[in-house]
Amino acid sequence: MISANGLPISFVQSGGFKHFMSLVEPGYQIPVASTISSRLQLLYGELRAKIMNSLSSVSFVALTTDGWSSRAQESFISVTIHYINDNWELKNYTLCAEYIEERHSSENLAFMLEMVIAEWELDGKVHAVVHDNAANVVSSVLLVENVENSISCAAHIIQICVKTALKSVKLYSLILKKASTMVSHFHHSNVAALALRKKQQQLGLKELKLIQSCATRWNSSYLMCERLVVNRGAIIAVLADRDITSAALALKLEINEGEWTEMESMIKLLKPLQVATVVLCEENVTISILRPIIYGLINKHMLIKSEDNENVRNFKEDINQNLQKRFKMKRQEYDEVVIDQISCFLDPRYKYLETETDEVKENVRKSVQNVLQTTRPVESNEVVSEEISAMDFLLDAKSYGENESEFDMYLREPQLNHNVSNPLIWWKNNELKYPNLALLAKKYLCAPATSVTSERCFSTAGNIVTSKRSCLLPENVNLLTFLKRNQNAFNR
Fold first, then answer.
1. Whole-prediction pTM value?
2. Which end of the chain has fewer surrounding CB within 10 Å, N or C?
3. Residues in domain HAT C-terminal dimerisation (predicted)?
C-alpha cells in the first residue's frame, strides 16, 4: 500500500492507521517503520529481478532521461527504458531516479548514464537516448559509448518553436500578458471567483475554473485562452458589476473587442500544435510518427492563406521556419539518413515516406537495405507454397515472393491507414514473412518521440518528496519512485 500509493513509511506509526487496524483486525501487531523499510527493499529486489529477466531476451532498447531538483534542492537524474518484447508489445519501465551530487557537467551526466547502463546489463543494447535540449545533456549523450542515436525531445522542440513564434507577434504577447493578469485576479479574489461561478450557472455554462499559463508549458497558454473565450460572457458580466469589481480594476483587466477576436484567432492557430504535442506525448507513440506530424503542421495547418491577417501570417511564417529548421524537414539527398526517417519507413502506416522528396526516399530505402546486409540474416519460418495459382499461370506471372527479397516484398505491401493505432500488430502478424525487417522494426520503433516518461517519473517523485517529506533520503526517493512507477509490472 505504501509503495502503490506513495505513502510515507512512517504511515504505519500514525494514530489513524493504528485505530483503523484495531477495528479491522484487533490484536494485529503493526510492523515498525524499519520493518516496512526492509520489506520495501525486498519488494524492490523482486521487481528489479523481474524487469531484468524481461530485458534479458531483448536485443535493442531506447532510453529517456531528464533532470530534476527536489524541494530539498537535491538533484536527481531519471532514466526510463523502452523496448518491444517478443509478443510485439511496447514496454517501458523506470530504471532509476538517481541522486547526482556532482555538478551537471556533460561528463558527469555521461558517467551516470553509463553507470545505469552497466547496472542493468544493457551494454550494446541501447540504440537511442531521448533527452531535452539542454546543451550539457545533449553533449553527455554523445559521450556515452555504443549509443547510435541522440534524439532531442519533440515536445521540447515544439515548445521552443511556439514560444519564439508567439514572441514574434507583439499583439499575441500583449494578449497573453493581459489574459494571465485576468486569470490571476480570479484566482486570488474569492469574491470574483464566486461571482464567476454564479454567472456561469446563469448562462448555462459549465462551472470551470480559469487556467493560468506556465512559462515552461506553452500549451498552458493555449488552454488559458481557450477557457477564457468559453467563459467570456460570464467574465465580462463579473467585471461590469461594480458591486464586485471596481471601475479602476475593471479598466486594468479589460480585454477589448479586437483583442478577444485576435485571441480566438490565436486559439485556432495553436490548436493543431496542442493536438500534435498531446499525440507525441502519449505512452505508446514511437518516433516513426514524428515526421508525418510535423509535415502535416507545416504543409496543412500552418499554410498561409489569402484571408489571414498580418498577425496570423507572421505567426505562421515564424513557426514554419522554426519547425523546418529544428526538425530538419528539408533534408537533401546528400544528407545522412536519420533514425526518424528509417523508423518512418519501417512503420507500415508511413512506409511510402510522403514527407520526403523522391531522392531522399531512395536514400532512406538504400540505407535500410545497407543495414539489412550488415545484419545477421534470420531464416524465415514462413512456408511458401510451390503451387502456381490459376492467375499466375494465365498471366505467366511469378508467384508472390518467388525470387524476391524481403525488402522488395515489403515495398509491395500496401500502406496502412494512419488511423491504425498500433503498427506493431501488423508486424506481429507478418514477422514470419519478414524476419530480418522485423528485427529492424523492433530496433527502430522502440524509441519514443519525447522524453515525457522521464518527466512523469519526476512528477511521481514530486508527490513523494512533499513539503512535509523534504528530508527524505535520496536512496528512499529512488526506491519509492521506482516502486510507484513500476507497480504495474507485477500484473504484466
1. 0.89
2. N
3. 406-486
